[in-house]
Design a protein that fits this description.
globular
């Protein structure tokens, strides 16, 4: 369980800081291209992130027939029988190459950088997508749609999500009411929370709340128990996988000060086509009465 927590935290940090750092990487909007260009319409696609698998299936469920490899964290029913090729940060180059893909999709980040660069050097077309903001996710939908020969479907999905996001934002931009202060916890030991500028922070603002942690330069900050209690948020959203003893103690102590606690939905842990679902979940939690 602790190893899974570390993987999730490393992914979040990757989303916060991932940007191309070497001159040979070719940047196009929200993606990095490695290896040769994609030739024609890919027939064998490997997805190195559940969020990208979900993106493919949201563009067109029939694309499940082209997905030949996914991560051990993928849980979509459509890919239940598809071979596993490792995780977010530890994809197996050998397993991927054995599937002879004509397109590999990955999340851009330092954790898998060496592996996907190796795949590209072996002649596999690789596209690494940035999924750290709403704008990047919307751009990634269009890019993936174009890559797999579903440009119209990708653009339609992009427009649908953009419309739903705009519908959520408008009332909160116009409302004079104060926004509830919330804290999104991604780990209890160590105590890791979403800071200003993070993906979760952006979703929280869209949902009508504001981050109780607004004075740190870090997208994902490590706090002491005392700091969390001193922040006195109105709501704690528990997005952590670990359940150490300190969790129960801190939730009880914060509840005594009037803080509510809710469990985060899985959508909050998967930056992609579920971003509006995550916003809706956060909005419901923010609106709930103590």
């Amino acid at each position: 369980m602790r190893s899974l927590l570390l993987i999730i935290i490393s992914m979040l940090l990757a989303l916060a800081c991932a940007r191309p750092t070497t001159p040979e990487l070719r940047v196009a909007r929200a993606s990095i291209a490695l290896g040769p260009p994609v030739s024609g319409t890919p027939a064998r696609v490997v997805s190195l992130a559940p969020s990208l698998t979900e993106l493919l299936l949201a563009i067109d469920p029939a694309l499940s027939e082209r997905i030949v490899g996914v991560t051990r964290f993928d849980d979509a029913a459509a890919v239940a029988q598809v071979p596993r090729v490792g995780g977010y940060t530890d994809p197996s180059v050998e397993a991927v190459l054995s599937l002879a893909p004509d397109l590999v999709l990955a999340e851009a980040g330092p954790g898998s950088k060496a592996a996907i660069e190796h795949m590209g050097q072996q002649g596999v077309p690789v596209r690494a997508l940035f999924l750290g903001t709403r704008a990047e996710i919307l751009a990634a939908i269009e890019i993936v749609g174009q890559l797999v020969g579903r440009a119209e479907q990708g653009q339609a999905l992009q427009r649908e999500l953009a419309h739903r996001l705009a519908a959520f934002e408008r009332p909160f931009q116009e409302s004079p009411r104060p926004r509830p202060r919330a804290l999104i916890v991604y780990g209890w030991e160590p105590l890791v929370v979403a800071g200003p500028g993070s993906f979760a922070d952006e979703l929280l603002l869209t949902a009508g709340g504001r981050n109780a942690l607004d004075n740190t330069p870090s997208n994902y900050a490590t706090l002491t128990a005392e700091t969390l209690l001193a922040l006195a948020p109105e709501l704690i959203v528990d997005a952590a996988h670990d359940r150490p003893p300190i969790r129960a103690r801190l939730l009880a102590m914060s509840a005594a000060k009037g803080t509510r606690h809710v469990q985060a939905s899985r959508a909050l842990l998967r930056p992609g086509v579920r971003l509006v679902d995550a916003i809706e979940d956060l909005h419901r939690a923010l609106k709930a009465e103590p």
